[in-house]
Design brief:
Elements: E1 3-6, H1 10-21, E2 27-29, H2 33-41, E3 45-46, H3 50-56, E4 59-62, H4 67-75, E5 89-92, H5 98-109, E6 114-117, E7 120-121, H6 124-129, E8 132-137, H7 140-153, E9 154-161, H8 165-193, H9 198-206, H10 213-222, H11 233-250, H12 255-269, H13 280-288
Parallel strand pairs: 1-2, 1-4, 2-3, 4-5, 5-6, 8-9
Antiparallel strand pairs: 7-8
Helix pairs in contact: 4-5, 8-11, 8-12, 8-13, 11-12
Length: about 290
């Protein structure tokens, strides 16, 4: 099977390198020349355009941050729509609004192609090791066709329902994670303002029913220490905007999501958008807390 990969950010590049380690030489493309150059230096085959990727591939993975960017790949001049797409399968692995991938599915149906959503749980280290968890919205036939590739990138693929269901699950997960991070960050800020030691507070959290993988992995970020960037604040803000839109479309209550979005937006406005989501805690303490 000929594989294509569009989007060579942190996750896309890691997926491309993972596929290459199995001898899968995917045809790759990214809007950023810097990202393309970096991918080529790692031995990936970089195409001149997304159109070229679609021409050269039977199965095309897309990892693009913004919904409109993904829509543009299928609708704008120079995009996928300018080649014969019959029989091609697209796997959308970004974090999008469910309606975005449903709309694209309708476009592709008229062209004899199909799309499935498979956003993932996990960050760059998990992508490098093939330990992602895929949240799948797809027909049984499309999932079976994609499995030989997805098994190289994930440790599990969880079928959630028809197209769009995987993205709905990913937004549900991310809004819960954002609300948790928001709560821990505010708790640390309140306690520090009351004179508590941050390290002791974190020790209590880590040895309590609150402890989980997010808390363990982000402990250094929460404390303001140097730690690897896995997911930036600006991207999580985009996901919360998408979650609010998805929730509003079905009348779901989204109070906690709105609160998390307000904090994330404040951080982006203050210049913290490129920092890790765990850095919301020091942002609150340093930028928002009243100095006494």
């Amino acid at each position: 099977m000929r594989v294509g990969l569009v989007g060579l950010g942190r996750m896309g590049a890691a997926m491309g390198a993972r596929l290459a380690s199995f001898g899968v030489q995917a045809s790759c493309w990214d809007l950023s020349e810097k990202a393309s150059t970096h991918a080529a230096a790692r031995g990936l085959s970089v195409a001149q355009s997304p159109l070229a990727v679609a021409q050269a591939s039977d199965l095309i993975i897309t990892t693009i941050t913004e919904d409109e960017g993904v829509r543009g790949l299928f609708t704008r001049p120079g995009g996928f729509g300018e080649v014969d797409l019959r029989g091609k399968l697209f796997i959308e692995m970004s974090t999008l609004r469910p309606q975005t991938v449903r709309d694209i599915a309708l476009i592709l149906e008229t062209k004899g192609a199909s799309i499935m959503d498979c956003p993932v749980l996990g960050t760059v280290p998990a992508a490098q090791e093939g330990q992602l968890v895929g949240l799948v919205g797809a027909s049984d036939e499309d999932l079976a066709r994609a499995r030989p590739v997805l098994e190289k990138l994930t440790r599990a693929c969880v079928p959630m329902g028809p197209v769009g269901s995987g993205h709905a699950m990913k937004l549900a997960f991310n809004l819960a994670m954002a609300s948790f991070i928001n709560g821990v960050a505010e708790g640390l800020a309140m306690g520090a303002a009351q004179g508590l030691d941050l390290n002791r507070m974190m020790g209590v959290f880590l040895n309590s029913p609150l402890s989980n993988v997010v808390l363990e992995n982000k402990a250094d970020n929460f404390l303001g220490k140097d730690a690897p960037l896995t997911l930036d604040i600006r991207t999580l803000r985009k996901d919360m905007q998408s979650a609010l839109t998805a929730g509003a479309s079905v009348g779901a209550p989204m109070g906690a999501t709105a609160a998390a979005l307000a904090l994330l937006s404040s951080a982006v406005a203050a210049g913290w958008g490129d920092k890790d989501i765990g850095d919301l805690a020091p942002f609150i303490r340093e930028a928002l807390c009243q100095k006494i």
